[in-house]
UniProtKB/TrEMBL annotation, chain B:
The gene is znuB. InterPro entries: ABC_BtuC-like (IPR037294), ABC_TroCD (IPR001626). Keywords: Cell membrane, Ion transport, Membrane, Transmembrane, Transmembrane helix, Transport, Zinc, Zinc transport. It is found in: Cell membrane. Belongs to the ABC-3 integral membrane protein family. It is a multi-pass membrane protein. NCBIfam families: PRK09543.1. This is High-affinity zinc uptake system membrane protein ZnuB. The chain crosses the membrane at residues 43-72, 84-107, 127-145, 215-234, 240-257. It holds the Pfam family ABC-3. It comes from Pseudomonas kulmbachensis.
Length: 262, 262
């Protein structure tokens, strides 16, 4: 526990008299992937902002390891169409980055071919990779990813999650990410925090998916995911989603990665 | 060459050079209305200058800076939409300036000169202010170029990466305030924003990087100043409006010229 990168204790955030976040406990350790899931309006983005220090909680404490280097990947990037900005120039907004370093970061995320394209012309999936590359250029100890797979098709989504796991393995950084697609997240995460203004439940994916609070929050969702799963034959990433049967595959993590390319 | 023409040319060129990069930010960050409000308030500064018996140049500079700070403070409260707020302040301050001026019977001022500029009546003292102000703003813009660009692309990303976003935003507004105070003599309060926006907008279509757009805008501004002064000299047209007409013609031209392949 002493090795944590960030630790939130009793964090409460209030907007207009309403608790958006209530008494949140959260910590991320090096090499750990923590995923926040929850329905719309559950306060996932608010929690991310509190972690990043963009927002001051009304009460509770947000502790960050001193001089923590954070790589942040926002939900999306909107650059005014009048601003002529290439991907390379965008990456070079991080101080001390040259073309070779930018190219290396883009190669790592598999988006090197867009290096000279204007950012406005880059597709959704490629943009997510470019944003990830920019976060990596900061040599982060902690990666914070707000809905990293937004606007990416299903095949691309599992690929992106696999990429995030690979990056974690290579750089040994902690990862905090927001998601609302359970089925893909399950295979790539060490800890799931199920959020609905307060922490409903948290733990390893297998534990969480059997938790009554989780079933209550995602009951309908989980069912539809199960149907989806059978139709699309994505057995590799849905090990934990068979909530009603309650016997998640133990080796799901390893299986998830291998299956994608196999 | 006549002295007054030389002064006019130097003042106009100094303004054009600084208006290029600064105007680019106004376009990228959609601050045109903000600039308009500050420039309308400049007339109130003139009136206050006469009322308090201080130099109008100083009064306008201080007035614009104060209003910029006030606007930033009010915008953070966010009880009114930004454009509503500006829409209230712009005409109110302009009208208040006119009303205050009408009370001062002993002061004979040429209102047209303040509204539309009186470039050909620039004194050596005015010129010193214009050159000094432009040089100071240009130096700061160059020094802060990368951080200013970073907050323009994505404020939260910049904040996570450790940039003092609020201070940078305020600095940019103060720089605009200084340029507006300085430019009032040249093109007048009603035309100042056009000098910031039109060259930048004209350069935008053909620029492939933020720097190209800023430098291109400066170059087009220089052309507009030279063209406007020539028109004024040979055809006896008012200098300020002639410069704006030239800038607008260059803008139209930028649409006719084929865009370079992207």
């Amino acid at each position: 526990m002493s090795a944590a990168l960030i630790r939130l204790q009793h964090v409460t955030v209030t907007y207009a008299g309403q608790n958006v976040l209530d008494n949140i406990e959260l910590s991320v350790e090096p090499g750990q992937i923590v995923t926040l899931i929850g329905p719309n309006g559950a306060g996932k983005t608010t929690l991310v902002k509190a972690v990043l220090g963009l927002l001051k909680p009304n009460s509770g404490s947000v502790w960050r390891k001193p001089k923590l280097r954070v790589g942040y990947m926002p939900q999306k990037l909107h650059v005014d169409p009048t601003l002529p900005l290439s991907v390379l120039r965008f990456l070079r907004l991080v101080p001390g980055v040259d073309r070779a370093q930018a190219l290396a970061a883009l190669k790592e995320v598999g988006a090197e071919k867009v290096i000279d394209s204007p950012v406005q012309s880059v597709s959704g999936g490629e943009m997510q990779r470019v944003l990830l590359a920019r976060a990596l250029l900061r040599k982060p100890e902690l990666l914070v990813l707000d809905e990293p797979v937004q606007g990416v098709d299903v095949a691309g989504q599992s690929e992106l999650y696999a990429l995030i796991t690979r990056l974690r393995d290579r750089h040994g950084c902690g990862v905090l990410m927001v998601s609302h697609d359970l089925h893909l997240v399950m295979s790539t995460t060490d800890q799931v925090v199920c959020l609905n203004r307060h922490v409903c439940c948290s733990g390893h994916p297998e534990q969480v998916s059997g938790d009554p609070a989780f079933v209550e929050l995602f009951g309908k969702n989980a069912q539809s995911l199960a149907i989806y799963h059978h139709h699309h034959d994505h057995a590799h990433d849905l090990h934990g989603s068979v909530v009603s049967e309650g016997t998640p595959a133990a080796s799901a993590h390893v299986h998830g990665e291998g299956c994608k390319h196999g | 060459m006549a002295d007054f023409l030389l002064y006019a040319l130097l003042a106009g060129l100094a303004l054009a050079l600084v208006a290029g990069p600064l105007g680019s930010f106004v376009v990228w960050r959609r601050m045109a209305y903000f600039g308009d409000t500050l420039s309308h308030a400049a007339l109130l500064g003139v009136a206050m200058g006469f009322l308090l018996d201080i130099s109008p140049t100083i009064a306008v500079t201080v007035g614009c800076l104060l209003l910029a700070v006030l606007l930033v403070t009010l915008q953070q409260r966010q009880s009114l939409a930004s454009d509503t707020l500006l829409g209230i302040l712009a005409p109110s301050t302009l009208s208040l300036g006119l009303v205050v001026l009408s009370f001062m019977h002993e002061v004979r001022i040429d209102l047209m000169a303040y509204l539309f500029g009186d470039l050909l009546a620039i004194s050596p003292t005015d010129l010193m202010w214009i050159l000094g102000g432009s040089a100071a703003v240009l130096t700061l813009l160059v020094a802060l170029w990368r951080p200013l660009l970073a907050i323009t692309v994505h404020e939260e990303l910049a904040m996570v990466e450790g940039l003092p976003v609020a201070a940078l935003r305020l600095t940019l507004m103060l720089l605009i305030a200084v340029v507006i105070a300085v430019a009032m003599k040249i093109v007048g309060v009603l035309l100042i924003t056009s000098l910031l926006i039109i060259p930048a907008a004209a350069a935008q279509r053909h620029a492939r990087s933020p720097e190209q757009m800023a430098l291109g805008a400066s170059a087009l501004g220089v052309l507009a100043v030279c063209g406007g002064l020539a028109l004024s000299w040979f055809k006896d047209t008012p200098a300020g409006p002639s410069i704006v007409v030239c800038a607008a013609a260059l803008f139209l031209l930028s649409f006719v010229l084929p865009r370079r392949g992207v």
